[in-house]
Here is the input.
Amino acid sequence: MSDLLAEQKRYYAERAPEYDDWWFRRGQFALEPDALARWESDVAEAESALEAFGQRGRILELAAGTGLWTRHLVRHAGRLVAIDASPQTLALNRARVDDRVEYVVADLFAWEPEAEFDLVFFSFWLSHVPEERFDSFWRTVRAALSPGGRVFLVDSGPKKEPTDDQRQVRQLADGREFTIVKRYWSPQELGDRVRPLGFEFDLGVTRHDNFLVGGGGLA
Here is the structure.
């Protein structure tokens, strides 16, 4: 598992320049007009869900990536700390957002919070947490929450045909292949899984099934 997670870390460092093309559906990731409209509708729905959740105060963003969500979080944050294992990715984040964000390069499987936050946010990260590290990750989240603090997440929508396989092969534009962890959660499965860990979430799927969104707080 350590080797797999190391390979996953390398993949996302190398993928940093391609990530925005995937999100904005440019170049090799372009979609046909109808599919693009569904994608953009779900993006807007996920962004609206985060806005409605009411992110305020001290915010911690885990696996912050290139700043696609950091740019929304920073508008309401009294303090925003953005963590990612890849300095290459955080460099793109910094260029997109501004110097109001505190950037930290750290492996989230080893990092420990040194402060408490009103909101812990992560996008497209939980699906890369293997079962072997799942409970410990949520203990980290719990340790980062202030009393009354909340969690919000965005991730890939559930697969129509679930699988127990945690591994997926990904290819970069130059043809290099990497094996990473990729898990697909339904709202009910994830809600049931985190409840014994002390969390009570309200989760859903966007209209066109592209994203899992939602959150909550400590039970």
